[in-house]
Amino acid sequence: MQPVDLTTLRAVCADLQHWLPARLETVYQRDRHTIALALRTLKKQDWLTLSWHPQAARIAFEPPPPRQPDTFTFSQQLHAQLNRLALVRVGLVNPWERVVVLEFAPRPQEATQWRLYAEIMGKYSNVILVNAAGEIVTAAHQVNAQQSRLRPILTGQPYVPPPPLTAALPSCEIPFEQWQQQVSVIPGLLRQQLLKAYRGLSPALVQQLLADAALPLESRTTELTAEEWRRLFDHWQHWLACLESGHFVPQFTSTGYRVIPPLGTQTPSTLSIHEILATYYQNQLQQQQTQQLQQQLHQSLQAQRQKLIAKIEGFRERLAAAAGGDRQRYLADLLMAHAHLWQPGMTELIVTDFATQEPLAIPLSPEKSAIQTAQELYKQQQKLKRAQQHITPLLTAAEGELAYLDQVAATLTTATSLDVLEEIRAELIQQGYLTAPDYYRPPTTPSPYLRYTTPSGFTVLVGRNNRQNDDLTFRVASPYDWWFHTQEIPGSHVILRLAAGEVPSEKDIQYVANLAAYHSQARASAQVPVVYTRRKYVQKPKGANPGMVIYDQATVVWGCPLSVSDGSSDLPQGGAGGDRHGIMAE
Q1: How many angstroms separate the CA atoms of 3 and 68, rounded?
Q2: What is the pLDDT of residues 59-106, one digit of tens each?
Q3: Which of 39, 71, 300, 579 is most enclosed, with most CB atoms within 10 A?
């Protein structure tokens, strides 16, 4: 993820000058790393985001925050001190340091009462509120003396800016020979030596300078020709000139964004610096959060599945042992029938097996008679029978729970958006499989169903998680709609919308079957069995987990998921099978 560098902060501060003065109406904290300041001028209003995220620290106008209660202490402290004050000045504390200060006063012409420092410095980023006396009142995160002896950040202590960098200051006045000597004094990679030689540079900016100068990224200082050095110096001077004049042209690149236009280009920017930053970092953070949440949910599900599998194996072993109860009763019957053959002190009694008519030796305890041993065997048989009656429903419940987790895992593998993953997490929290994290806010707006259109123009809706599957099947679908699902394979509920009297063609049925196969755990298979029936034949058992249903009068057709993943519009035809009844859909 491209970090906000000094050049970007210069562009942001230059644009914020058009917002002065602005009234601060409220402060809202979006998450653990981001606050939003509601600013209003005579002509416009917007939300200025200050973020101290380790990978996405930034300052930019972004969309309004959600209408949910703000429970963070930091934003409440900022609101208590800055509410209804005017933002009168914005700028960098040092022209070559990434620290922005926002000054607040009752009116533009009055003295500053509060300063809000936004330190945009990667993993060391922070937002700190300082009073008129220069004392820290609150900070996004405090740093004690054990964490940093160089610069602790504690309430009540005077604010001290970050220590300045030791590299040389860039300047348009530096001649070419001196600049080249400063960069090449130590042989090495050109991009690394540029970063070490001067302040104000970032890896992204250096890559842009090298690309604009048509130099390879792995260029070394000892390999450049005089012409290449001169060409790079021209782009260096262009960068400094844009900084000095405030000429910024924000635009997206193939790898991120840039705010300095390439040398010699006159194309104006169609997007503001705030639109660039808001779009880029929201997309990047959403992708990061999506990957992290998907991985966390997958790990949690795997752990829960392993526990259930071990429990099921234990139940089955105990049932296998309990199945020997009939043998115990049979041996007891043989002892009772041949009790007259017993003699004191015998360690075994040889009897005639009722089934085979062969001799059978039954072990005995010398201290017990044949009748006493038979009574012990009868007791053991009753105990095993009771255990079997107790374990069987537990095994059935555990198997159903495992089927539910398999269904969740199937929807998790096909989930590609953050909102769907949030709904899956909310479902697992509600079902008791996960614990709600700190500052957890459950999703309030459901994500939309996936929507397709068959060759004949019928609408197809696909659930994206178990909650959606239940809503789609039992609240959205009508009795005339057709319900599709992979046979005994976890997957999404798929509804073919039909009006009364409408009958889909075989091509439509195959199209929907392919979709059901694609949105299932078997999407990588060549052919997948898919059942379909009218919605009125689908029911939900009482107390069943989300997404679990039973159905009747279903027909089987082979779905081809690869035709959907390949984007083929001419989907292959498949043959239909016979009816199936009473199968549990996951």
Answers
A1: 29
A2: 999 999 988 888 899 999 999 999 999 999 999 999 999 999 999 999
A3: 39
Range 24-27, long-range pairs (CB < 8 A, 24+ positions) = 24/82, 24/83, 24/84, 24/85, 24/86, 24/87, 24/104, 25/83, 25/84, 26/79, 26/83, 27/75, 27/76, 27/78, 27/79, 27/82, 27/83
pTM (predicted TM-score):
0.75
CA angle, residues 427, 432, 435, in degrees to nearest 5? 90
All residues at 6 or more sequence positions from 381 whose CB lies less than 8 Å from its CB, including other chains? 325, 326, 328, 329, 332
pLDDT tens, residue by residue, 409-455: 888 887 878 888 888 898 888 888 888 877 777 777 778 889 999 99
- For residue 181, give the amino acid letter: Q
CA dihedral 21, 27, 28, 31 (to 10 degrees): 90
Tokens of 572: 């292959």
Q: How many CB atoms sit inside 10 A of residue 582's CB?
A: 8
The vertex-208 CA angle with 204 and 210, nearest 5°, equals: 115
Q: Determine the Cα angle at 458 with ends 455 and 459, to 5°.
A: 115
CA distance 123 to 155: 21
Tokens at 28, concatenated? 């809202």
Q: Which of 210, 212, 205 is nearest to 221 (CA)?
A: 210
* CA 388 – CA 328 distance, rounded (Å): 14
